Amino acid sequence: MNKIKSFFSSLIKKDSTKTVVTSLWCALLGLILGFFILLVINPSNAAYGMSSVLGNYLIFSNPGDRLNYFGQTLAKTAPLIAMSLSILVSYKAGLFNLGASGQYSIAVLVICFLGVGANWPWYVVMIIAMIAAAIWSAITGLLKAFFNVNEVISGIMLNWIALYLVNGLLSNSSSVWDGAHSESIMITSEYNSFIPSIGLDKLFAGNSIVGLGMILILIVVIIIFILLKKTTVGYELKATGLNSDAARYAGISKVKSILIATAISGALAGLSASLSLQNGFTSWRLSSVPPEIGFQGISSAFLGGLHPIGVIFSSYFIMHITEGGSMITDLGFSPETASIMTSVIIYLSGFVFFIKEAMRKFEIKSELNKLSRNKENKV
User: Fold this and answer.
1) Alpha carbons 178 and 94: distance in angstroms, whole number
2) Strand partners for 177
3) To which H or E segment does residue 67 belong?
4) At residue 2, does pLDDT exceed 60?
5) Per-residue pLDDT reduced to its tens digit, 88-126
6) What is the C-alpha to C-alpha distance for residues 378 and 161, in angstroms, rounded to an integer?
7) Residue 114, CA atoms < 13 Å, CB-side half-sphere
8) What count of other Cβ atoms lies within 10 Å of the Cβ of residue 316?
9) Residue of 310, 373, 372 lying closest to 27 (CA atoms)
């Protein structure tokens, strides 16, 4: 019995356990607040609306529809995982990548011109898109490394530059732009730039957007995990992020770490764009705000405890409730209702580390009180 108690006690004290517990608490609190929003807007349909959000594809009675929508949720999770990794890598190096939306946008520009206009092979388009996004991200790295320009400010400014650059170049190109629908031409399976399904679509009731991209992102997750955990480069990035002065004293170049982190981060944001557009479930539409996936990636990264494996589950959770939320419009809720509810849930994910810190302080206080009582008993 003592061994079991000791095991659970040590398990609870582990940082990974605290991350999982706090993430679950944040998700649960978000769902409760989301349900409250539904109650305020339309009490009679609130319960069914919440079941739709939580159930997503499970609300369909037809097995084929379930598989189809399940595959759709999985496919749409892949770009969010890539974006979460982008935020994660930069954060590990002590940087906050608020320019991920701009990097995503630059990758979209490359994908549209090379994938739609030139119809190049999918892997060539993907690699060039990642390189272009990495170069765009490196601008922030150069400004930070050599001129100490805050990466948050430069990243936000570059978001807007990229947004209007992409809007202007795409909308004025007839070879890649669908003027009738005010969006870029969708990449479908007829294009060489479409990421192949390799037969996975047959497992999900013929859903064509399910394919190799889902496998590629899992490989990337493993690569990032190994990079951060097992390599010298990963150690240098984390050392710089924890204490740049101590890292420099140990012979680690801060400039090198910043440039590597921003380049990798940008490449992952570019991969996110490839997995979105080259899978054929989205296109570029004229907008006055940067792509929201860049900000969703922040929430997903923190909800996943800033761990490569954790972001797989957090990204799926966010995409699951987002897709489920889109189904409640038939219950008398406006489209904005689903967005508000999912935004509340996503917003609360940012409190993961706040709750973890509160738990840590409570644990320290409990240990001190325990030591104090033991000391009094001895006296």
Assistant:
1) 41
2) 184
3) helix 63-92
4) no
5) 999 999 999 999 999 999 999 999 999 999 999 999 999
6) 68
7) 21
8) 19
9) 310
Q: What is the DSSP letter of 278?
A: T
CA–CA gap between residue 275 and residue 125 (Å, rounded): 11
Tokens of 132: 């272009």
What's the DSSP call for residue 285? B
Per-residue burial over 147-184, b = 16 or more CB atoms within 10 Å of its CB, e = otherwise: eebebeebbbbbbeebbebbbeebbeeeebbeeeeebb
Task: Please name the residues in contact with 10: beta carbons below 8 A apart, sequence gap of 6 or more.
Answer: none
Dihedral in degrees, nearest 10, Cα atoms 78, 83, 88, 94: 170
Rounded Cα distance, 283 and 305, in Å: 30
Query: For residue 198, what are the CA distances in angstroms to 90, 203, 222?
Result: 32, 11, 21
Cβ-proximal residues to 30 (8 Å cutoff; 6+ apart), any chain: 344, 345, 346, 347, 348, 349
Model pLDDT for residues 345-359, shown as the tens digit of each residue? 667 766 666 776 676
pLDDT bucket at 3, cuts 50 / 70 / 90: low
How many angstroms separate the CA atoms of 9 and 18, rounded?
A: 12
Q: What are the two backbone dihedrals, phi and then psi, of residue 207, each rounded to the nearest 5 degrees?
A: -70, 110
Paired tokens of 304: 């996943």
- For helices 212-230 and 310-325, what crossing angle results, to 10°? 140
**Residue whose structure tokens are 């189809």:** 68
Could you tell me the pLDDT band of residue 58, with boundaries at 50, 70 and 90? Answer: confident
Burial class (CB in 10 A: 0-12, 13-18, 19+), 53: buried
Q: Are 193 and 185 in contact (CB under 8 A)?
A: no
H or E element at residue 184: strand 183-184
Write down how long the chain is: 379
Token pair recorded at residue 289: 């705000």
Q: How confident is the model at residue 60 (pLDDT cuts 50, 70, 90)?
A: confident
* pLDDT at residue 376 is higher than 70: no
Average pLDDT, the chain: 86
Best mean pLDDT range from 31-35, 219-223, 313-317: 219-223
Domains of the chain, earliest start first: 22-34+62-356 (1.10.3470)
- pTM confidence score: 0.88
Closest CA to 89 of 297, 357, 343: 297
